[in-house]
Amino acid sequence: TQSTWEKNVQMWMVESLAFPVPDRSFASQILHDKKKDLIELHTSNGFIIPALWITRPSAKFTVIYSHGNAEDLGLCLSWCEHLAHYCDINVFVYEYGGYSSSKRLDGKPAKPSEETCYQSIKAAYEYLIRNNVPPTEIIALGRSLGSGPTVHLASKLKVELAAVVLISPLSSAIRSQMSFNINFFCDIFLNYKKARQIPFVTLVIHGKADEVVQFANGEELYGLLPNKVLPLWIPECGHNNLPQKDVFDRIKAFLEEIPQYPKVKIEEEPSTSLSLSSRSQVS
Predict the structure, then answer these.
(1) How far lies 159's CA from each of 106, 155, 193, 213, 274, in Å?
(2) pLDDT over 90 at 3, yes or no
(3) N or C: which end of the chain has fewer CB within 10 A?
(4) What phi and psi, each to the nearest 5 degrees, are found at residue 66?
(5) What is the pLDDT of residues 263-281, one digit of tens each?
């Protein structure tokens, strides 16, 4: 059997590979230029994270956008702005603790982790609720690693949502890199264990030639979802070259489908996870 030290080292290695934080200089410039629109969120585990709210006057829905692991708020902002304009939706894009201009309240180095991603999306959702956005008008959209906090929000935090969108999602951090499914104790973002617990209608989009998060991940999650619409599988496209128009067209059509798919009842499973307001703090 492995020692606690060995297990901690393996977990550290997985999280180090999962979070290749991009250089902060580009995001710093972008966020400086958007300073008057910048929102500061406080997570319950001691991070201050930036967010931006892109609004459209006639929008019916507000998207919470969770970005991939090799991008940050600055790098994904243009894509979010185009999404808001094309689909006529509000987009609330937030940062993970440990990325771009995020910082810790205690002054210690801000390092990302699975738990901090969960606390970050929780802070984003709570901000929208405090600012009178009806929960039934909120869509959680996650790309790549961003599918982790998105699935967690929709399945574990006892929230209300209109819908979920998963773009190039991972079954889990380790499964995303393998052509077969096997369980590892040090794995993170266990979406394959949570997908069955998402009661909200979900759209899955994935490139069939994806070599970063293998297409089998999207297929597996789609098969597990209890409430879903026709997915968008894009032939000959990988992780970072999905045609923007195709993706936006499918999301735009999905907005019209949402009312046809009410929330479904999910059978409760034994769980140690806590409610939205009472999750334990992790440093």
Answers:
(1) 29, 8, 18, 27, 12
(2) no
(3) N
(4) -110, 115
(5) 999 987 654 444 454 333 3
CB 202 within 8 A of CB 230: no
**For the whole model, what pTM was predicted?**
0.89
Structure tokens at 111: 């390092």
Nearest to 214 by CA among 167, 164, 166, 175: 175
Active site annotation includes 210? yes
- Residue 93 to residue 95: CA distance in whole angstroms: 7
* CA–CA gap between residue 283 and residue 280 (Å, rounded): 10
Catalytic residue among 102, 144, 155, 171: 144
Q: Please say whether the beta carbons of 209 and 114 come within 8 A.
A: no
| Contact of 231 with 166, CB cutoff 8 Å | no
Task: State both tokens at 209.
Answer: 């030639």
- In tens, the pLDDT along 142-176 reads 999 999 999 999 999 999 999 999 999 999 998 88
Whether residue 144 lies in the annotated active site: yes
Q: How far is CA 154 from CA 121, 131, 231, in A?
A: 11, 20, 18
Q: Tell me the DSSP string of 20-79.
A: -PPPHHHHHHHHHHTGGG-EEEE-TTSEEEEEEEE--TT-S-EEEEE--TT--HHHHHHH
